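Deliverable D5.2: sample structural annotation.
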Amino acid sequence: MGRRRWKVWLALRGDRRSTLAFANFTFPKQTMSQPVIVGAVLYDPKVSVIWEIIRDFFEANGRPMDVVFYTNYELQNQGLMSGHLDVAWNSPLAWLDAQRLSGGTCRAIAMRDTDRDRVSHLVVRADGGVESVADLRGQTVALGALDSPQARLIPIGHLHRQGLELGQDYQERRFDVLVGKHGDHIGGEKDAFQCLAAGEAAACAMLDLNWQAWMADGTIDASRFKILETTAPFDHCVFTVRADFDPALEQHWLDVLYGMSYDNPLHREMMDMEGLKKWEPGRVTGFGPLTEAVGLTDFFAAR
């Protein structure tokens, strides 16, 4: 077993001690014939199907690629920092963590079209008597998992800008479903909404895409619930690389990625599951609201 594949096998095992034992190993310069190793967090069984389709497309287009699945973003970023991975498909919180760990030297190279300019909503019951953010003072707000950017951290930052401080002006009812996956799933977010619906909270937070989906499928009754406030726009997931990732290899990898088309039925299957219609260049201008919220909550120090 080659040294690179040995490290990938260790990551697949999820063995933190074995992984860290190789943290200081330096790989020889990668060649175009070697597979690019991409990390992804397995937050849902469909993730393996998504990446099988992507990997097959890359193989067919002369850019070998392999995928390592992780159970959480913290371990995935360790893999990226120590050289286990060439590319990490990171949540917005994991992007900030990668920058923290690398001293700000990582690069955001690509993202989905739907990762740009997202917002979260604070939702209330139409008959709940909450007409403004000020009405949440002394109330309970239902939030998603501890590490969910869209269903907890960014809404906390938004309420802060409106003059309400967590633990002082309002209390959170937090739904810690699958902590470590950064709210990629809908579990804690939907639990927070159900808490609101049951009358156990005055408001809840959810991503705009979930508001739209749950309005469409009947989970949310438009006659019973309304949007109280909407956060500033923010960006979501991003492909992350270290500063030393070979520029020519990176460009080749991106050329293949951008070659995926929603007009191709096989690609459409993957894109519908992953929630996009087009891959776009990465950008870092949309992480301001989360950066502010992470600082406000002292999130990384608290972990």
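Annotation notes: The longest strand covers residues 36-41. The CA atoms of residues 150 and 208 lie 9 Å apart.
The annotation will be released with the project's public dataset once the embargo ends.
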